[in-house]
Amino acid sequence: MALLTGSNKIKTAVFISGTGSNLKSLIKFSKLKKSPIIIKMIVSNNSEAKGLQYANIYKIKKRVFDFKNSLSEKKIIDELKQNNINLICLAGFMKILSKNFIKSFKGQILNIHPSLLPKYKGLNTHEKAIKNKDKYSGCTVHYVSSKLDSGKIINQKKVRVNKFDTPKSLAKRILIQEHKLYPATIMKIFSL
User: Fold this and answer.
1) Domains of the chain, first to last
2) What is the DSSP string of 28-56?
3) Does the reported pTM lie above 0.85?
């Protein structure tokens, strides 16, 4: 795969709701020469999201939208289009995007989810894995479709569930794998 220079890298927006640890890992990845993406915007539905600090640290445009109605959604769609955003990475984004939003960026929205989909869609994935005595849990990167956590799976990473795991300890180990899986998946998609 040819190396991409800054001007022909894929303009990317990362959507967050919280601490932004996956965002930070994607920013670091985007700075690598071999990376196919450049992060142009950080979008959050939460003005208190700790991850928004990375916008200041790395001088990336940030926007906060409430995503509560079609008017605020139209604003964000327009802004993404004006900034020529061709890839949206959901990274701990705790809002469900509307069908209209997903249609506007069909095949251009990725999500990372802390379970081995199709198992445990939605929230409390680590609790569910432990409660069901699963030997493995993990994380999944998938395309976003209008059904929650149901889009085409692109990549997964298994993590062994230990006998003494708590949801917190399992979450911590899976998060480490998420930080590796998301960049690896982006490389996989854009080197095809």
Assistant:
1) 6-190 (3.40.50.170)
2) HHHTSTT--EEEEEEEES-TT-GGGHHHH
3) yes
